[in-house]
Amino acid sequence: MRLSKGKVNPHLKKELYQALHQTLADLKNPQDIKDFLEAFLSEAEHETLTKRVAVAYWLDKGRSYVNICDNLKVSSATIAVVQDACTKHKGVKLALNHIKAEEWANVWAEKIKKFVR
Question: Name one Pfam family in it (predicted).
Answer without folding.
Answer: Trp_repressor
